[in-house]
Fold this protein.
Amino acid sequence: MELSQLANLTVYTKDLGYVRYDDAKVGLLTHGLNYGTGCFEGIRGFWNAEERELYLLHLAPHYERITQSAKILDINLGMSVDEMVETTIELCVRNRFESDVYIRPLAYKAGQDVGVRLHGVPDAFAIVAIPFNRYIDSEDGLNVCTSSWRRVDDCSIPARGKITGAYVNSAFAKSEAQQNGFDEALMLSADGHVSEGSAENFFMIKRDALVTPDASQNILEGITRNSIIEIARDLLGLEVCERSIDRTEVYGCQEAFLCGSAAGVAPIVSLDRRAIGNGKIGPITQRIMAAYENAVRGRDPRYRSWITPTSSGRKVSAAG
Ligand code: PMP
């Protein structure tokens, strides 16, 4: 987003409440900025034009996850999951969004002294929400490479926490992939098993069943990943297996895709210049993409519990 557009946004900070983007400032010596000691979330909201409704996706699971990430980093959020959910709805109402949105809650070590550590440093919490279209252009499918960078290990920077500093690892992988002409990177764990994309979880389809790395493969335990497992099992009647995956198993699989809050369901059409299946977006992936899109836009009553409408907040705001 352009800086001039950002200036008009309302953001939330725990210290200041609802303020203009430009009025929420971070000092140069802030621990989180210097040492990467922060954690965040990426939440999507989808505009349903027929209903004129903005639906926010999986609010509570995202705030439950940031609570866990904060615990790993010894950060005190100072807000309950319910309070963060309510604040997010209010923030969207105040910004009067009529488009898809991306919401970025961020908690970080806010002390401004020199000395890397987690303990005894004050914490800060903020939420920024912006209009958002697409994160990666995956309409024709992604050409992916295996990264030469290995995924951070749980005993160095835990991948199950969404920790700001760990995204240096993702940035290495993403830039290497794109600068070599690929769309995305598939990262392996230190032991050589498939872990995940730079900011997405990985699935392959083998003998008509979904296979995805289990939680011990240094993955972020993705909320979209859980949604895909639910759709595959309950709606499409497919088998889902969580286990370790070898790199060359992927070369021979039927179909593969990445998924994440920002990326949605992003089909993979090649890995390391080898076609996945026939090199086109596969039929099972297409069914999953369609079911996911219907669910997140509020068009499938079976998945209403995933989404939170914001219009009741709009009416209260208009009346008040
Ligand atoms: N892995 C990483 C490293 C990510 O950054 C993300 C995006 N949050 C994901 C997986 C997907 O997680 P989610 O579906 O919860 O967005």
Notes: The chain has nine helices and 17 strands.
